[in-house]
Amino acid sequence: MNRINRRDVLTMLGCSAAAFPLMTPMAFAALPSDNRLVVVILRGAMDGMDALQPYGDPGLARLRPQFEIGPEAGATDLTGFHALHPYLSPLLPLWRSGDLGFVQAVSTPYRAGRSHFDGQDILEAGTAGDIPPMTGRDGWLNRLLPLIPGAHGRTAFAVGREEMLILRGPADHASWAPDTRLDMAPATADLLLHAYHDDPLFRESAEIALGLAGTTPSVEGKRGDALFGFAASQLRQDARIAALSLGGWDSHRGQSQQLRRAFSALSAGLLRLRADLGPTWDKTMVVVMTEFGRTAFENGSRGTDHGTGGTIILAGGALNGGCVWGDWPGLDEAQLLDRRDLMPTRDVRAYAAWALHGLFGTGRAALSSVVFPGLDMGTDPKLLI
């Protein structure tokens, strides 16, 4: 039997493992500050009341009778009112160390039609509710960059099949997308992993490549872990801001099974980021956002539909965590928005703005007029240590 070397494998694949990470939407910015910011966009509208279950409100069990809710169903109690979804429980050590927190009942100003596309555009553009025009639109991270003195070098770049709107705009940045997408049979993917198994230099790159591409079911579960690992490798160098996105959060049917996979991937990704950043984790804040929340009540398919009020997940060693921010509006029918959605009690942009203020010293006037036009930042929630 002839021995197949790694070069033979790559020749058969017709591509380079080193290029595979450039397959999934991700963006980076290099800044002079020693602090790091990671923004994660969860595409599909994460159900924030499943991630952080307000089981202390009796309305939750009434509105979701077939859902598994609270500590009795396997969730981890955090505050006596809130419980952490079972598949986010790997993050419990972060909560206990003050490196994890949540913001409840938040949303963008978007109210028009609960469209994923419009909601995501408004979230990434940071606008006051109007859908940004197709031409000339830019993102709030791009508008931030010129406000930070001394930005240099790789001020920003986007990596993936599409440029993320959150970093699009006139501020210096670059983007790259592959001409073809990786489409590999399971047997071929296994062959690549086997070929690199004993190679300390290329084994991790091969795992990241296949994880980013979601090539096989056996590797797809590592996708979030791979994304965050690749981001950490850039943040350890000259990148100071990273933005990436994770799909799979639309849970109209079978929400329990759907979010089990999504929460597991997010947990693995955040833990991978902490491990790979090492001491840099202490200077890092992670802001996990989604375009809107979901209905307060379950539907006939054991899922939830597009809603309004949602949840931000915060992490990082720079976070003053171990707590839940935001006012709880209640789940009685009269307290719901349009008698169907969790009522938002604060603009999601306000928390992003205060994070930028604390990490990079950006002034409030610029944040509320340039980065997030029309934003009332309100009082400081004191997110950072």
UniProtKB/TrEMBL annotation:
InterPro entries: DUF1501 (IPR010869), TAT_signal (IPR006311). It comes from the Bacteria. Residues 1-29 form the signal peptide. Keywords: Signal. This is Uncharacterized conserved protein, DUF1501 family.
